[in-house]
Input
Amino acid sequence: MNLMWNSVSKNGRRTSPSVATLRALLRLIQRTREYLLSIVSMIQGVMSENTEELLGAITSFSKLLPNVRNSLIDEVIRYEVVPRFIEFLRSPHTVEQVAAWALTNIASGTYAQTQYVIEAGAILVFVELLNSPVDDVKEQAAWVLENVAGDSPRCRDIVLCENASAPLLTLLYENINLTMLRNATWTISNFCRGKNPPPD
Output
């Protein structure tokens, strides 16, 4: 039980919480309620067929996910939002890029969360996006693959099996964009990590 309700005075008598404490608790409850309602609203928006609602919801998720605990990412997974994000990777540029950013943060979570992104079929789509005509999308795709490949030797091998090496090497040879070069270099370096076995 919360210690707030069991405050004990010097003479051993239990005291009631102060008005200030109660007000603080009410504010916390209100903020928590608003936060949960916003999550529900975002999930509904992601499932919408309205482009404006979709973009708003995905953008909200992409801003929220870098700053939350893994438990919230588990909730996003539980409500089947990840497959929807993967669908958006084949959408017009704005939606595509924001969905890629949201998936980057989910794939950067726990091992189980990374596995879920893999099993949902995201890796092949991200490898395809390495050939996107849009630099921002290619950068984001390289970043996701970097995170996944660096998670474990098994994850690394999955990325390699989707033939990510060739388009990444193309990015290295054909680009002067420093962010692109950094992301591609880190991804390739993650291909060379681990001992179970090392890549050919």
About this structure: DSSP finds eleven helices and no strands in the chain. Residues 5 and 16 are 7 Å apart (CA to CA).
